[in-house]
Design a protein that fits this description.
The protein is of the alpha/beta class and 506 residues long. It has 22 helices and 15 strands. Strand 5, helix 8 and strand 6 form a beta-alpha-beta unit. The longest helix is centred in the C-terminal third of the chain and has 19 residues. Bound molecules: adenosine-5'-diphosphate (ADP) and magnesium ion (MG). Adenosine-5'-diphosphate binds next to helix 3.
Length: 506
């Protein structure tokens, strides 16, 4: 019987998709879905998540409801499904882009049982008439793609995603499969809890991308370094991510002026130019695409040889996703990030005025990013650890910290000095103020507080102000001091910091 089942699945895989074998966990996942259990899939981008619900949908009774965040992604999938089948009714999407008669056609196909996959964005799923319609339909299972959108701790939070469970209850329950390419343990828990699938079978693939080289460089002469880098990698494809649309345009211009075939991509451009630029990049009429993070979701260019972050991303999830677009064919993939603490302060500024809960989350995500950027530990180990995976090797052999270890110094005494100074000065000051006091900089502000007479004034004058900035950041990373973002980044010492003063360690 088992033998038959095995060959049956493989036969169907070949028949419907033209593949002769399953990738990674696909087969185990598909069996779990077919057996009617809830399923949670963590698989890196390009791992083949779609097949995990597409194949069972074709084999099971009823129609599978697929929830996906982007209309473009849905359309691609529906088109692909139709090329596998003679019946164009096999897959449909329902969203606001369809006119009345198109909607009627879709509903008709579904009611006649021709449709096996019906795609929705969460906004349209929650529409009353769609709910009423779906109540009349036999649902085989619900698939929630890009499920990290459910969690506020994910890199792409979508409040509408949190309404999926109540809507499913209204339509009629059926097994669930949730899929994502990035989830920290916290995000995974959030997803399962929110979808009411805490008992789901979990299939987690490794997130390690052995062919990616991770490197962080200090952001000094970044434009020149990028131009030099691209020229050294002439003819190869690369993506450069910038934080702002303005920077995207400036940098593109600069690259073009330097004879580089570069194009821009951001959400502020008109749709036509944007699509044309994307096409030119995919078809290799351009080598480099300079983009905001609006670029990349659902884009499958296998031979991107480098991803450069002009600005540091605001979370490690984002970093992992964006760097993950390099080397998808398993070949060389260089992930180069330019880091300056100033950029972190810029990102903090964007958070001001947002709801406090959102700020708290944003602050912690940023702190993880800072500690990754400033760490001298193996990048791969740090990154995988963040996603709840232990990387066993001491030296990965494929990141800057493993290949070029940074010299370490013991800053125990400095750290203690900074903490004591902060405690004595009180919690009304920012990091650069504290550092200025320690080096003994005679600013008007310091004088106005009378701190030029404090015992800490100039106590750290044997180092420069950048050194003290780094020490204070280490204290933040180690959780010894807190930073209040709403109040312009004022620092205060916490109990862990007090403990360190009492019992310092190297
Ligand atoms: P994900 O959603 O995990 O990023 P996709 O579902 O988009 O990944 O699949 C990525 C690529 O892998 C697609 O081009 C798909 O056709 C291909 N693929 C999926 N499953 C298989 C398989 N069993 N054998 C060969 N290629 C596959
Ligand atoms: Mg996908």
């Amino acid at each position: 019987m088992k033998q038959n089942e095995d060959s049956l699945l493989r036969e169907k895989l070949k028949e419907y998709f033209g593949f002769s074998s399953f990738k990674g966990n696909q087969e185990a996942v598909i069996r779990n879905v077919l057996s009617g259990k809830d399923t949670f899939v963590l698989m890196p981008t390009g791992g083949g998540k779609s097949l995990c619900y597409q194949l069972p949908a074709l084999l099971m009774d009823g129609v599978a409801i697929v929830i996906s965040p982007l209309i473009a992604l849905m359309k691609n999938q529906v088109d692909a499904m139709r090329t596998y089948s003679n019946d164009a009714g096999i897959a449909h999407f329902l969203n606001s882009s369809l006119n009345k008669s198109a909607v009627a056609q879709v509903r008709n196909d579904v009611l006649e049982g021709r449709t096996k996959l019906l795609y929705f964005a969460p906004e349209s799923l929650t529409k009353e008439d769609n709910v009423a319609f779906l109540r009349k339909v036999k649902v085989s299972f619900y698939a929630i793609d890009e499920a990290h959108c459910i969690s506020e701790w994910g890199h792409d939070f979508r409040p509408e995603y949190r309404r999926i469970r109540p809507i499913i209850n209204e339509i009629g329950t059926a097994p669930l499969i949730a899929l994502t390419a990035t989830a920290t343990p916290k995000v995974q828990m959030d997803i399962q809890k929110n979808l009411g699938m805490s008992d789901a079978s979990v299939f987690k693939s490794s997130f390690n991308r052995p062919n990616l080289y991770y490197e962080i460089r200090p952001k000094h002469d970044v434009d020149r370094e990028i131009i030099r880098y691209i020229k050294q990698h002439e003819g190869k494809s690369g993506i450069i991510y910038c934080l702002s649309r303005k920077k995207v345009e400036e940098l593109t211009e600069l690259l073009v002026a330097n004879g580089i075939r570069a194009l821009a991509y951001h959400a502020g451009m008109d749709a036509q130019t944007r699509a044309a630029n994307q096409d030119d990049f995919l078809m290799e009429r351009a080598d480099v695409i300079v983009a905001t993070i609006a670029f990349g979701m659902g884009i499958d260019k296998p031979d991107v040889r480098y991803v450069i972050h002009y600005d540091i991303p605001k979370s490690l999830e984002g970093y992992y996703q964006e760097t993950g677009r390099a080397g998808r064919d398993g070949g060389e993939g260089h992930c180069l990030t330019f880091y300056s603490y100033k950029d972190i302060q810029k990102l903090e500024k964007f958070m001001q005025g947002k709801p406090v809960a959102e700020q708290e989350i944003g602050k912690l995500l940023l702190l993880e990013t800072v500690s990754y950027a400033e760490s001298s530990m193996c990048r791969r180990k740090t990154l995988l650890h963040y996603f709840g995976e232990e990387y066993p090797e001491e030296n990965c052999g494929c990141c800057d910290n493993c290949l070029h270890p940074k010299p370490k110094i013991d800053a125990q005494a400095s750290l203690r000095m900074a903490l004591e100074a902060l405690r004595d000065l009180g919690d009304k000051f920012k990091a650069d103020y504290l550092a200025s006091v320690l080096v003994g900089k005679n600013t008007a502000l310091i004088k106005s507080y009378g701190h030029n007479k404090s015992e800490w004034f100039g106590a750290g004058a044997d180092h420069d102000i950048r050194y003290w900035g780094a020490v204070i950041r280490q204290a933040l990373i180690m959780g010894l001091i807190d930073k209040n973002i709403e109040n312009y980044g004022l620092l205060s010492i916490n109990t862990k910091g007090e403990e360190f003063i009492a019992a310092p360690r190297p």
